[in-house]
């Protein structure tokens, strides 16, 4: 069923029904990094949490990735934002309070905001689990005239609830969820996240979401296994972090970076492949694991979408797409959707 023919269901709830009172300070995560690592690395297939890629060095490496000629996402999205910022801001409402989930270095939102009339004061809220990423984005956005920035070290859902609960009378919300950050979530989790986001919003609030589209396999490989080795360093830095923060003894040269296209699931996967049989201990997580030669640690999924998947997913979560802009060369889609 296409979004346009789906029955209109009112998913609206009064915001007070679910949102706990904003407590001023949000706890970064209900479970610790060590707990996450114990659960994911202790299971089969072995995994690590993708959000842990963004410590100080990881955030800097991700910034470098965005400059790689083989990684088109950031450039394509920035170009779309620049070309369509007036239409986007107009549709979101001139006075909308803006919240960005996972802002990276803040460049993209700065590009969007340059479409505002300079006189208009803007409240901007940034939500991320990584304090390092937030620092960079906060500093970048404070340089935009008329912008008032607040940083929230929090998970997306709780950060958004906090911002939504503190809105002023008559103020609408524009949620920016850019860079195909949604692609890190498995489809059921992505659906749940979008529904939780919808539950924090009121009808008429909007969300701007960036989705990377399915494209030829060679292009995807070059984007996630670049010839300069920056993505490999970004991936293996997870092990550096485990060594430093959890006292682990990963030998970096015994793990190879691998980017895999999973055709059936339409996702790129990043793996760290053990180059021999080995035993690794992670004392901070109370864990010791045996890895066979060729066994992998799966560190990230980046789902790729077809345009109709995006529209349907948004509709099912309680949003109605109101505008969509596509970069045909890079195959990237920016969608503006309204809470219905
Ligand atoms: C920031 C999560 C969208 O999945 O493309 C870049 C992270 N991983 N290269 C992505 C990433 C490998 C990126 N996201």
Count of distinct strands: 13
- The averaged pLDDT comes out at 91
Give the proportion of residues in helices.
25-40%
Ligands, deduplicated = N,N,N-trimethyl-histidine
Rg for CA atoms: 20 Å
Shape: globular
Helical segment count: 10
SSE pattern, N- to C-terminal = HEHHEHEHEHEHEHHEEEEEHEE
Amount of beta strand: 15-25%
Give the uncertain stretches in residue-range form: 1-29
Distance between the termini: 18 Å
- Biggest β-sheet, characterized? 7 strands, mixed
**Structural class assignment:** alpha/beta
Strand order of the largest sheet: 4-3-2-5-6-13-12
Give a structural overview.
The chain has a 7-stranded mixed sheet, sandwiched between helices. A 4-stranded mixed sheet has the order 1-11-8-7. Helix 2 (56-67) runs antiparallel to helix 9, helix 3 packs parallel to helix 4 and helix 6 (156-165) runs parallel beside helix 7. The chain is of the alpha/beta class. It has helices at residues 33-41, 56-67, 73-92, 107-113, 131-142, 156-165, 187-200, 217-224, 230-246, 307-316, and strands at residues 46-47, 97-101, 122-128, 147-153, 173-177, 206-212, 255-262, 267-274, 278-282, 287-291, 296-303, 319-327, 332-339. The structure holds N,N,N-trimethyl-histidine.
What are the key terms here?
single chain, 7-stranded mixed β-sheet, 10 helices, 35% helix, 25% strand, disordered N terminus, binds N,N,N-trimethyl-histidine
Summarize the structure.
The protein is an alpha/beta fold and 340 residues long.
């Amino acid at each position: 069923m296409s979004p346009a023919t789906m029955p209109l269901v009112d998913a609206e709830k009064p915001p007070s029904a679910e949102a706990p009172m904003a407590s001023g300070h949000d706890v970064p995560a209900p479970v610790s990094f060590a707990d996450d690592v114990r659960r994911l690395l202790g299971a089969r297939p072995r995994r690590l949490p993708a959000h842990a890629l963004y410590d100080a060095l990881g955030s800097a490496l991700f910034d470098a990735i965005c400059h790689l000629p083989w990684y088109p996402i950031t450039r394509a999205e920035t170009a779309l934002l620049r070309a369509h910022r007036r239409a986007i801001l107009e549709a979101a409402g001139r006075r909308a309070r803006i919240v960005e989930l996972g802002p990276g270095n803040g460049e993209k939102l700065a590009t969007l905001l340059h479409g505002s009339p300079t006189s208009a004061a803007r409240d901007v809220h940034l939500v991320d689990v990584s304090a390092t990423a937030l620092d960079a984005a906060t500093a970048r956005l404070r340089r935009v005239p008329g912008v008032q920035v607040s940083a929230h070290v929090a998970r997306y859902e709780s950060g958004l609830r906090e911002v939504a609960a503190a809105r002023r009378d008559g103020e609408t919300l524009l949620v920016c969820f850019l860079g195909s950050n949604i692609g890190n979530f498995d489809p059921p989790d992505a659906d749940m996240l979008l529904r939780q986001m919808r539950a924090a919003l009121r009808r008429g609030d909007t969300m701007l979401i960036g989705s990377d589209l399915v494209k030829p396999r060679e292009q995807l490989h070059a984007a996630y296994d670049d010839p300069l080795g920056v993505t490999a360093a970004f991936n293996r830095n997870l092990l550096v972090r485990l060594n430093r923060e959890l006292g682990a003894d990963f030998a970096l040269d015994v793990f190879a970076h691998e980017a895999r296209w999973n055709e059936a699931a339409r996702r790129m996967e990043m793996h760290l492949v053990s180059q021999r049989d080995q035993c690794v201990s992670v004392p901070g997580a109370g864990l010791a694991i045996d890895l066979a030669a060729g066994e992998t640690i799966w560190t990230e999924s980046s789902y790729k979408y077809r345009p109709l998947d995006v529209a349907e997913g948004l509709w099912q979560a309680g949003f109605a797409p109101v505008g969509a802009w596509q970069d045909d060369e890079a195959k990237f889609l920016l969608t503006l959707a309204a809470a219905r």
